[in-house]
Structures are given as structure tokens and as C-alpha cells.
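assembly run, all chains below
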Amino acid sequence: MYSFDMTDEQRMLTDAVNRYATRTLRQVYRQAEAAGEVPDAAISAGWELGLLPASIPEALGGFGDYARLTGALYAEELGYGDMAAALHLLSPNLVAIPLLLGGTEAQQQQYLPLFCDAAFPKATAAFLEPALFFDPENLQTTARRAGDAYILDGRKTMVINAAEAEWLLVYANEEGQTQAFLLPAPTPGLHIGKRDHWMGLHALKTYGVELAGVHVPAQNRIGGEQGIAVQQVLNSSRIALSALAIGLARGAYDYARDYAKERMAFGEPIAHRQSIAFMLADMAIEIDAARLLTWEAAWKLDAGKEATHDAYLAAQYAADMALKVTDGAVQVLGGHGYIREHPVELWLRNGRGIAAMLGAVIV
Amino acid sequence: MSIEFALPESIANQTGLTRMMAEQVMRALSRRYDEQEHQRPWEYINVIWPFIQQIEAADLKRSLSKNGGNGAKPAEKKQGTGNLRMIHMIETLSWGDAGIYLSTPSSALAGAAINAVGTPEQKERFLKRFTEGAPKWGAMAMTEPHAGSDTSNIRTTARLDPETNEWVLNGEKIFVTSGSLAGKESNGIIVVWATLDRSLGRAGMRPFVVEANTPGMTIAKLEEKMGIRASDTAAIVFQDCRIPYDNILGSPELVAPDATEGKGFKGAMKTFDASRPYVAASAVGIARAAFEFTRDTLAKEGIVIPTAPPYHTLSAMQRDLIHMEVELKAAWLLTVRSAAQLDAGQPNSLEASMAKVKAGKVVTLITQKCVEMLGPLGYSRELLVEKWMRDAKINDIYEGTGQINTLIVARRILGYTRNELK
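ok done. output:
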């Protein structure tokens, strides 16, 4: 059937994540932006929600089953709270979920219990490259087989929390195929570079990473003979990005709507004018459309259907939508929207990043 | 309850059959009835009528059961699939040909109004005819020459003649879809909106059922249109048109003028909850026709949409195709949601308007883009693409223009009345 209502369990989960987003993230995000990092306490509080362990089967230390749709639901709430904190909090997913999707049984048993601990796991992935024509299926970082090891060479960017990471999942080009290699850090040849500086997401600590002849044992390549299906990983990233975009946009829309109802001009609230009200109506429609596209793609993937193109379209749409909506929110606030006292300018800067962040978040 | 996107198998099967009809019957007639405006596509009408009779019979049965045995308490609301089924059918038929689809013999908007607010007796008397005999049409007459979206401003009057206990209608209606088919060419019905008391505005408005060929009702004119030319669009004049007292839909009692919504008007709004998803579905069908044709034509030239391409590798043509594809999907999902809500007995006025706004925009954008992308071929009447563009435009206009539906969405999300947000 077609149905658009969450299960009771999903409702409880999203309510809990929404409380965290509004009571914790929304309290710290502005200061975090100025300080350049999300406070550890806020991340610990988020980790206590158990979102990742809830995706890992009991046999591997978790307490649930992996579902992209549920991921989309909680990621939207996190995006509503704060994009930078959401990306930080979800960084362990970047290792755990590819392992769930494509790891061998031995790899899953060895590594997944690490993601079910009480402490926030220090694990992240290096996927994006500082290249003008970045292509996930034709990476410039290379992996060469040498005996029972691989040798990795290349440069990565936007590696979230790389400086503290104990494990890095590095994606590299092995004879034309994208493969993933789990690297302990530090490792000889692995250089964590300077911190990246982005237009938005100032609270998110990301780094450039250089790999110069890094040796990694062959058994650390994710998956068996076939390795990993990168589109499968990317699909989960597309769902995550879309959901974050939707949450971000919803936050901006809520703020602009409330502002428009209070801001007086010519003796009445500006929301009484169609030029403002219609912008808000279009935002509401676009947010819902993006959410439906995302849910459908996630549902199809969870049902085991081929839905790479659906996920791709949903992510394209959501990225465009988030930019349109956050830009609209700044516009509704007018001059005040441009002033950093209001959050909408930050949300617009964050929104612009979404289209460039494939592989930087996974649910 | 859970979030699901699975099409029930029975609807999938039905869509397969509808698709055959669309492909083999409708597409073959498309150009002819576009050029021969005001002629009826009987080849289609005769083929579809037996199916429509079945749907009408099921709808009537369901609607009567909602009234309960004697018009008492409505039966328990339970999840149906009627509207979901309907939007799939409409989408596919409109993919075939939107003008011919609009000529489908059925109770249409008249049926929706009667099902929404009619008594069991009215349902039997007016809707049973759609389950038997020769093809018939239903129509809704709301718009007047000076009142389009501004429905509360209609001037057609209904006056009770106490001597004969009849309503007497006077006025002029325009843009009545299937007006001639329903009012003159078949034993159909027209739901006519009239006012009992103009000083009451919306509160004074009521729908009345007028049967075909009732004296005093004249089909004054058949419009010539930009598109959907196979569809009959009539102007109808009422001159002392007398109808039985029991042909009023809803209560004849008038409420105070300061009540924000009159009962009659609410009845009309209720029919929009279903008709807007239907129009959105029709829009999506036309858009899909144009999109698929353009995509397949370009594919023959080697321009294809890869599964998940990096954006920088795409040509402008490919980007346009991807943009159209996802916009189409977005409009369709909004439409499906609004229909599924209706089936589940949930309020859907906001979502129905959202779907209508989006689908109206998307079909306009896609069909115009397809004409552009195909160059001289797109503009040529040798192909159907230019026709689809002409057919498309009405979807952003009827059942509430894009602007009116945006206004409805805006009022809802802001919690504003029509006085606060004009």
C-alpha cells in the first residue's frame, strides 16, 4: 500500500531526536559556529540516543536492524537541529554502515562491536577529493596490490574529525573500481593535513588528508573477492544528505514563517502579503516533495529494490531545494536575514554545501 | 501504519489494462479529435463505458453504505483504495490523451458532489443511471462570466416557488466541462451552484442537481480552446429552469451571514479534496507522455540519462531530462499522498492543493521544455508534443488556478483566514 505515517516506534525515535535537536543542538549551534567546534557534551548526548547501535544487529553488539528509511527520519531531525553537529555525530556511520552493507562476516564481527560502545567512536571516512571533476567511480586516490597488502596514494578532503580518528575508511581506485580500505591511525604515510575552511559548517572539524605509500593489510579491504559496491554506499549517503537537507530547510522555513507573522510593515504582518506568503507556501511544498522523494528511495532500497537512480534524483532535488528554501528564508527576513544575529544566513551557507558533500554522511 | 510506497497489485493490474487502452485506442484518436473540435470520440467512449459503469456501481455502493441504512450515522471509516485507484487511472488515460480522457462518460464532479453531501435517495435517483444503459455524463457548473476563482460572487439564483415546491434557477454558467454531454447529449446530470441569498455570500450558496434536457436550461455555446479540444466545454443558460425541491444538495437552511463558512460552500470544498488530486494526476499523465517521448527520441540520438552521473559530466540536454524526471516524480508523489490520505479518511485539503500547485507547474514546465528540446519536431503538428503542451496548460488553471491553490496552501500553513491573507 501507499501510506505516509510513521510506525509508533519511528514516531518515538523521531520525537526523541527532535527533542535533542531543539533542546541541545539549537542551544549550542551558534556558539559552536563561532568556536569552530561542537562541544563534546552535545555529541555525547547525541550518541546516547543510540542511533547507530539501533542499526546494528544484536549478534554484533547492537540492538536493531538497519533501515535507511528510519535513518532518513532521524537525519531530518538532526539536520533541523544543526548540520555541523549532525555531520559530526553521524561520522562513525561512515565506517559502520559500509561495513554493514558490504563487509565480510569476519570484518563485521571484528569491527562493528566497536560502534556499540558507550563512548563516541573515533572513526571516520575519507572519500571526497580536492578535485574539480570529482567522480566517485573514478577516484584519483589509487590502491595497488603488493603481496598481502595494498599501497594507497592520493589526497582527500572534507575528512570529518580526521585529527582524532583511530580508524579511517579510505576509498581508492583499484584498477578502475572504487574500493574501501580500513586504516588504523596513525599509520606511516598517512598525513592529516590542515583543517579545511568552508563557507559554512564552521563548527565541523574536517581536514585534508594525504596518503603517501600507505600500506594496509589486504584483509582490511571491505568485502570479499568482489570488494564493496560503491553505489550501495553512495545510495545511503544520498538518503542521508537528502534527509539532512530537508531538516535544514524545514528549520529555515519554520523560522521565516514565524518571523513573517510577527514582523510588521505598513501596519500589518508581512505574512499578510502574498509576495511573502507565496514564497512560504512554495517552500512548504518543496520540502514535502523532497521528503517524499527521499522516503520513496529509502523505502525501495530497504525493500531490496534497485533504486540508485531514485536515490540520485532525490539527492539532486533535495540539494536544490535546500538552497532555494534557505535562500528564501534569508529573503523573507530581508536585511535582518543577512545579519548574523539571525540563523538564516548560517543555514544558507550550510545549505550550499550539501551538493558538494556526497560520501560525507551516511545513514 | 508505516511509510510505504507499494502499489497494490490490483491497481497495478488495472493500470496495465488502462495503459493498453491509452496506447491503442486513445493515441490513435488524439490528433483527429484535436482537429475536429466538438465531435465526440465515440470509439473511446464505447470502449471505456462498461468499465466506468463498474466503478460507478462500486462507488455508489460504498457511498450508500457511508450514509448507513437510512441516512443515519456514517459507517466506520476504513482504509479504501478508491482514490488511489482513480488517480492511477486518470494519470494513465491522460498519458494517452487528456482531452479524450475528459470525455470519459461518468458522473465526474457531479458524482463527487452528490457522494459528498447527497442523501441516499439522491444518490439512488441521480447516480444509478451511471451504472446502466447508454453512456452518460455528469458535470459541475460553478464558474460564471464574472466569477472564476471568486466563486462566492456567483449570481445564478435559486428561488423556491412555494406553490409548486420547486426551485427556480436563473443565471448563466460558463466553462462547464462536459456540459453539453451531460445536459443535452445524454441522460446525464449537472450540479449547478446557485445562491439562495446573495447577501449571505458563501453561506447562501447551494448546489442543485439539474437533469438533462430540463426545460429552461439551454446549452448556449461550445467553447473553442487552446487545448483539450476533444473535451466539451459549454456555456449554459438557465431561464426559469424549474427543478424538484429534493434536488438541492445539503440543507436548505441558511446560516447567519457572519458564519465564516456556509454549509453549501463547505460541500464544494469537500469535492475539491478529491478533484484536485484528480487534476494533478491528469497533469502528471500529460507530463509523463511528453517526458517519455522526448527521452526516447533523444535516446535514439545517443543522449541518455546515466544512472547516477557526476553532475559535471552531463550535457545541458541531459540535465534538462534529469530535472524533468525528478520534477515529474515529485509532482506524482505529492498527488499520491493526497489521494492516499483521502482513502484513509484523513484531512487532505492542504496536501491536495500542494499537489495541484506542483503538478500544474510541472506539467507546464515539462511540456514547454519538451517542445523546445525537440526543435522543429516539437513545434510540428506531425507529432503530439505541441498538442501536449496545449493540453497541459489547463491543468494550472482549472479546479483552482495555481495561484488560488498557492493561496490555500499559504493560508493553511500560516493559520490565516481569507481576510488576513487575501
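Residues 230-262 of chain A form the longest helix (33 residues).

Chain A touches chain B through 50 residues (CB under 8 Å).

not gonna interpret more than that til we talk
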